[in-house]
Structures are given as structure tokens and as C-alpha cells.
Amino acid sequence: MSVDETAAVREPDPFRRTRWSPRVRWRLLPWWARVVLVYLAARAVTTAFVLELAGRQGPNAWTGAYPGYFEFANLWDARWYAFIASSGYPDELPRTDDGHVAENQWAFLPVYPGVVRVLTAVGVPWDVASVLIALIAGLGAALVFHRLMSRFLDPDQAMFAVVLFCVAPVAPIMQFGYAESLGFLWLAVALLLLVDRRYGWLVPVVVIWAFTRPGALAFALTLGLHWIVRWVSREREPFPVRERVAAASVAVVAGVAGLAWPAIAWAVTGEMGAYTETELAWRSSYIGYVELVPLTPWFQGGDWWLGQPMGTIAPIALVVAFGLVLVSPWVRRLGIDLRLWLASYALYLFAVFFPQSSTFRILAPMFPLAGALAVPRSPWWRGGLVAVSLALQFGWLVIAWRIDGYDWTPP
């Protein structure tokens, strides 16, 4: 055999090497198919984590020992949503023995249990229907998030941002009986519409979102800041009167929608502070029953968790650190509108949220930050991020989701 013939035998088929190699076949897939595969793979890994923990779960207030997947996926607040679907909201607030408002359904918004109830009406068990809706909404959020990231990042960066979204430490919530997935979907759609300046379509999205998960008030602030930025920069980017009116109108709608649920709770119960006092009931086990004073909860939490002086220093340090994050080069790649959302939502949480074991789940609407982490292309960086995220995900499930005796760490 000649040298040329030997080389021809040893030389791999260039057609197979280029067209049929896994990397090329992956790139030949349409973007939506890649997102679906990433999402399903991430959910499969999470399912393995969940089944491992369910197999070690002891008897508790909601399940017997070793519950199946769907039972285990409907612990904690998922039970409140099931209660809302079956019994609605109380017209009289429940009270503790000392007369304070007790935990009740008014803390939870109605869209998610309403959607799940539609499935149960055709015979799907609640535990299954709640997970199916969460899974479908989570996939929708991943698809829209990819489109959003594609406005600012290169294709491989946008796809890796989706990977980080799907394997995030609190990503298991997208396959549990919680409303977060629907909230992520509406938020991703709202941000995409804002970035694309499609203000009219924002109205129905923001209204539905306001009755799914809290955040509409923060988005109203985002829209207000967006209006100011566009006005100041109108010489560089035209801001015609029609868009000025539309953007301002949507900001007003978002503000009204964000206040609508507390107003409805007031109208039904006859108590003006029905919603606020209900929310405060959840922090009473930490600091007792106190009035809500905006911008103080993180200092109250700092004092409870860390004592003084660290209880005062830590919140201030967090604010400074987050401000530096917002002006970092990677985050600046996301554009001004997404940074306005991140700042607005952070301010909203700083104003009203008490830091406790649910903090990581409550921070999840900051998922656009995944786009900043996707900017570096180093395989070591990306592989490390995925590994760390999955490790933190398992840790979150162990600490916050699994019930271990007297558990005071709800997710």
C-alpha cells in the first residue's frame, strides 16, 4: 500500500468530522431546540437530586415517609396554593391568640392556583398539575430569556446564559408547585418588550404578572427611570411624543396593578392593612409583630442574624457591593434597561423584604445577571460555574426544601 493510500485510510471522513460531530450537530439545531434540550437536561439533573432527597425524607406534616416526586414537589407554599384553589381567600382575617393577623392565603396571588385549577377540572391531580404548569412556564421563561439575552450577547454567550438560568441554585422551584415559573415568564416577556420599545404589549403582561408574583411596583419604577433615561438621551435616541405617552402610561398601569392586590384584600376583608399585616406575619417568628417601616427590614434582619455592629454594617456593605456590580463591565453589557430593572428590584427588596431563608428564592427575579456571568468564554470558567451552581442547588434543596424535624428554613 502506498503512502498516499495509507494516509487516505487513516484520514477520518471530513464529512463525518464536520457535519456529524456532536458540536456541529448542536450548532445546526435551531436556537429554540437547543434551549429545550438545555432545559430538559437541567430538569433531569434536578429530578435526580429531588428523588434522592425524597427517598430520605421522613414523615412530616404534609407527607408520609419517602414521598413520591409529586408529593415532595408540593411542600411548603405549594400547600397554600392548593388551599386557595379549593377554598379561595378569607373574608375575615385569621388571628393569633394575642390578636395579631396570622399567616393566611392573602399573601399569595391568584393567577397560578387559578391556572392549575383548570387542569384539575379535567381530572389531573393537583400535585401533578401544579408541577406541569411550573415546568411549562419555566420552559417558556427560558425561551424568552434567550431572546432577551440575544439582544446584548453573542449567540454562544446567550445560550450559556440560558444554561446558568436553568441550573441556578434555586432553579428547582421551576419544577415544584410554586408560582415562580410563571413570574419568571411574565418578567422575561416584560423585559423583552421594554428593550424592544413595544410599550403597548406591556400593559396586559404587567397586569397578569401583578396577580402572579410580586414585582410590578419595582417594574413601575423601572419604567419611570426608563422614561427619564430616554428623555435625557433623546438627542441620541429619538423619543417621539407617542412613545413618551405610551411609556408613561405603562408605568402608571404597572403602579396601579402593583397596588391592586392590597386594595382587593382591603375591600374583601374590610381591613386596610390586610395584605401588609399578612405578609408581616411571616417574619413574626424572627422579630415579633412590628410595623412595616420602609428601608428598615434589612437592618432589622441584620440585627437578628448578626447582632451589632455587624447588623448595621452588613446591609450597607451589601448596597455598596451591589452598586459596584451594576457598573461592572460584564453587567454593563446587558444594557441600561436591564440594569434599571436590577436596581429597581433590589431597591424594592431593600425597602420591604425581611432577609430570611426565602431570600435566595426572592432574589431569583434578578436572573438577567446570568447574562453578565455568561460573558467570559473560558471553558474552565463556564464549567466551574455550572458545577458550583449544581452544588449550591443540591445544598439549597437539603437546607431549604427537605423537612428535617423542627424546620425553620422554608424555601
UniProtKB/TrEMBL annotation:
Native source species: Agromyces flavus
Biological pathway: Glycolipid biosynthesis; glycosylphosphatidylinositol-anchor biosynthesis
Membrane topology: Multi-pass membrane protein
Keywords for this protein: Endoplasmic reticulum, Glycosyltransferase, GPI-anchor biosynthesis, Membrane, Transferase, Transmembrane, Transmembrane helix
The UniProt record lists the keyword Endoplasmic reticulum: yes
Gene Ontology CC annotation, any one: mannosyltransferase complex
TM annotation in the entry: 31-51, 128-146, 158-179, 199-225, 245-268, 313-331, 338-354, 383-403
Subcellular location: Endoplasmic reticulum membrane
Keyword Ribonucleoprotein attributed: no
GO biological process annotation, one example: GPI anchor biosynthetic process
One GO MF term: alpha-1,6-mannosyltransferase activity
Protein name per Swiss-Prot or TrEMBL: Mannosyltransferase (PIG-V)
Domain of life of the organism encoding this protein: Bacteria
